Amino acid sequence: MLRSKCEKLGVIAFDLDGVLVKHTSSWRYLHEKFGSIRIIQERNDSELFKEGVISYSEWMARDLEALLQATNNKLRREDIVRAFSEYELEDGAEDLINYVKSLGITVAIVSGGIDILANMVAERLGIELVFANKLLFDDQGYLIPEGVEVVNPLHKDEILKKISRITSVPLSKFMFVGDSDWDECAFKVAGYPVLYLRGSEIPRINVNNIYVVKSMRELKDLISELCSS
Question: Is residue 6 part of a domain?
């Protein structure tokens, strides 16, 4: 792992959707691409998950079943790769990541989204640590209605703790950049929590001393300020 030139920061972990890429949900992105958005809109799976009625693995399976239903069980890995290839990187993200790496700070992606997109973005930006939920395919490359839960969106803090063990960097030297109340658990354990705010409405997050930025330029300025003080 890199040796940080910044005394205060050793690791910066980024949410993917709504932070490094412009769309706010990898899952919704696929539903819109493959025509299953109406199926999931008729459900209330996110609330069922938050209330503990279904597990995250069950929620993933239900999303995947909706995708398969809309595509007559004929959704291939290459179709998903092709759909994700149209993603839009957040303005200034590449410059920011290059700057962070120049400081010797370890960069990670921690996403409740989908591994295929997370790995595409990581390869483009040169990010080595990637944690995102995995889709599974049969021997012919067709999507199957189950995935591998890697990042429970309500327990991203557990992934930060894992990264801390991997890198031997204390959580007090972590920055986590997220965009919603789903990131609250990660904000609470990171020494430097940062809310990446796209609109004017601040989500309800019960976190003390959280930084708020509205662009990659502002985030770069914040990191520069922390590392020079």
Answer: no
Could you tell me the residue range of the domain that residue 191 belongs to? 11-24+88-134+147-228
Count CB atoms within 10 A of the CB of residue 206. 9
Rg (CA), the chain: 18
Q: Tokens standing for 34?
A: 């493959």
In three-state secondary structure terms, 85 is coil
Q: Note whether 160 and 173 are within 8 A (CB).
A: no
DSSP character at residue 10:
S
In a domain, 5, yes or no: no
DSSP bridge partners of 176: 13, 193
What amino acid is encoded at 64 in this protein? Answer: L
CB 190 within 8 A of CB 171: yes
The angle at the Cα of 21, spanning 32 to 26, to the nearest 5 degrees, equals 35
Q: Answer yes or no: pTM beyond 0.70.
A: yes
State how many domains the chain has.
Answer: 2
The model's pLDDT over 169-194, given as tens digits with 9 standing for 90+, comes to 999 999 999 999 999 999 999 999 99
pLDDT in tens, 6-62: 999 999 999 999 999 999 999 999 999 999 999 998 888 988 998 999 999 999 999
Q: Interior CA angle at 71 toward 134 and 38, to 5°?
A: 90
